[in-house]
C-alpha cells in the first residue's frame, strides 16, 4: 500500500481536505440522537437549502455509490403504467438505460452520440409521438466526456409537456449553481464524494415532496426503496433503515461546513471554472487537444485526445504523472482515444500549474 497522498484529478472520489479526513476519526452509533438528529437531519436540511429556497422539497440519503441512488430513484419513482424517456449521450445515460432494462421499466432511449448535446426539437418530437411517456431522465454533467448537458432547455421541455423530470446531477450538484424548483426538477440525484467534496459511502436525492409521496409501494427493490428510506428518516428523526455509513456521514457534514466557508456553491463554481480554464489553456500550449468544443465543456472534467505518437502509451504517461503526485483518469469514450483530467475537489489554481509542469516533464514521446 502506498503512503503517498496523491492529488486525484478525477470526477470522484476526489482529493479531500485534511479536516474532512479528520472528521472520520470518531465512531457514532446509528441509533444515537446526537448522530441522527444532530448530524443526519442537519445534512438533509442543508442539502435542500443548497438546492432551492422552496419549501416543497425534501431530501433522502441512501447507502452506496451514486449509481445506487439512480437505480433507487428509477425503481421507486417509475410506476408500472409509466414510461421513461432517457437521454443518452455518454456512459452514465447508458447506465440508466441498462437499469431500466434490467428492472423491466418501459422506456425510450434517446441516443445522441457521445460528443453531441441532445437536440430538444427532436426530443419534443419524441414526446409528441408517444403520449405514454410520463418521465424524462438525463445526466447533467456527463463525465464520460466532460459535457455539460443543456439542463435549462430540457427542463423547459419537461415543464411544457407536463413530464416528471429526473436529473442525475452526480458531478454537478454543489459545484454548479441551480435551483431545482425554478427548473422544475422533481428528483435530483448526487453523491457524497463529488462537488460537496466528501468521501464515498452514500448518495442523496433531493425530491419534490408531493412527487415522492406518490411512490409508496412502487419500489422494485427492498434496499433501494427510496420512499421507504425517506419515511424512516422522516418518522425517526434521521434514522437509516439499514446500517448507516457513519464515518462517511461525519465527513460529509464537515464538507458541507467547508462549502459554506468557501462562500457557497457560487464561489466553488468560480474556483472550478478557473481550474478548468487554466487546465485547457495549459494543455493546449503543450500540444493537447480537448475532445469537445469549448461551448460544451463543464467546469468538472475535461477529455483530451491522446497523442498520435506511436510511442505513446497511456499507462506509461499515467505512471509518470503518478510518480510526481498526480492521478488522472483513462478515457471512457468509445469512439475516440482519450484520457480525462478532473479539477474538482480540494484542487486550486496553483495545483493546476504544478500539474501542467508535471505533464510537460512526462511527455516522453516528444523526446
> How many beta-strand elements?
14
Low-confidence segments: none
Approximately how much helix is present in the residues?
A: 40-55%
Kindly name the structural category: alpha/beta
- Give the integer mean of the pLDDT values: 96
Oligomeric state: single chain
Describe what this molecule looks like in 3D.
The protein is of the alpha/beta class and 367 residues long. The chain contains 13 helices and 14 strands. The chain has a seven-stranded mixed sheet with strand order 2-10-9-8-5-3-4, with helices on both faces. The model has no long low-confidence stretch (mean pLDDT 96).
How would you describe this structure in keywords?
41% helix; alpha/beta; 3-stranded antiparallel β-sheet; 7-stranded mixed β-sheet; globular; 367 residues; 13 helices
Short description:
The protein has 367 residues and is an alpha/beta fold. The protein has helices at residues 18-22, 33-51, 66-77, 91-102, 120-129, 151-160, 180-183, 209-212, 226-235, 246-262, 264-285, 314-323, 349-362; strands spanning 7-8, 57-63, 84-88, 107-111, 135-139, 141-142, 147-148, 164-168, 187-191, 202-208, 301-305, 326-327, 329-330, 338-342. The model has no long low-confidence stretch (mean pLDDT 96).
Helix and strand arrangement:
Elements: E1 7-8, H1 18-22, H2 33-51, E2 57-63, H3 66-77, E3 84-88, H4 91-102, E4 107-111, H5 120-129, E5 135-139, E6 141-142, E7 147-148, H6 151-160, E8 164-168, H7 180-183, E9 187-191, E10 202-208, H8 209-212, H9 226-235, H10 246-262, H11 264-285, E11 301-305, H12 314-323, E12 326-327, E13 329-330, E14 338-342, H13 349-362
Parallel strand pairs: 1-12, 3-4, 3-5, 5-8, 8-9
Antiparallel strand pairs: 2-10, 6-7, 9-10, 11-14, 13-14
Helix pairs in contact: 2-10, 3-4, 10-11, 11-13
